[in-house]
Amino acid sequence: MTIKSLAQFVDDMIVQNDYPGFEPRAYKIGLSQDLLKGPAKLFGQALDHDSIYVRLVALRWFQERPQYLKPYIRPVLAMVDSEDHWLRMESIMALERLHQPSEEIAGKVAEHLFDAEIVVQQVAARALGKIGKRLKLKEGVVIDSLTQVARDGDPLVKRKAEKALRKIGVYS
Length: 172
Hints:
Elements: H1 3-16, H2 33-36, H3 40-46, H4 52-64, H5 73-79, H6 85-95, H7 103-110, H8 118-135, H9 141-152, H10 155-168
Helix pairs in contact: 3-4, 4-6, 5-6, 6-8, 7-8, 8-10, 9-10
């Protein structure tokens, strides 16, 4: 397996499924068995690919296999600040599955509680519940941001923030 064959597979799948109104970034491409069993290094290289679709496939592969993500945290963290909200959302979803997240990751995700896209805010709030619980956070920027959103946020995000605070153990 090579990055070129992965990119070709992704392009072929998008072309085959194209129809009016089709959003290829939302399409969760079912990889072949050869690709699914491909090495983490292949998907690590895919995180830096020119195609947003290849990067999304790589993020989703790592979401299912968080044990392989550690060497690739930097490129995933960089995507948290991408201009594309799909990349922001999917990178946060990958980071939330880490078994040993860092406070740096929590802080980076907390910034997106105030993202321009509501769906990114929701994903960030949910992720912070899991990350905060693993880090045993009881105070700090993450808790303050979640509390602010739980008090004043969009109703959909507010519920996610409240649930995250309950999961962490600082909201009753």
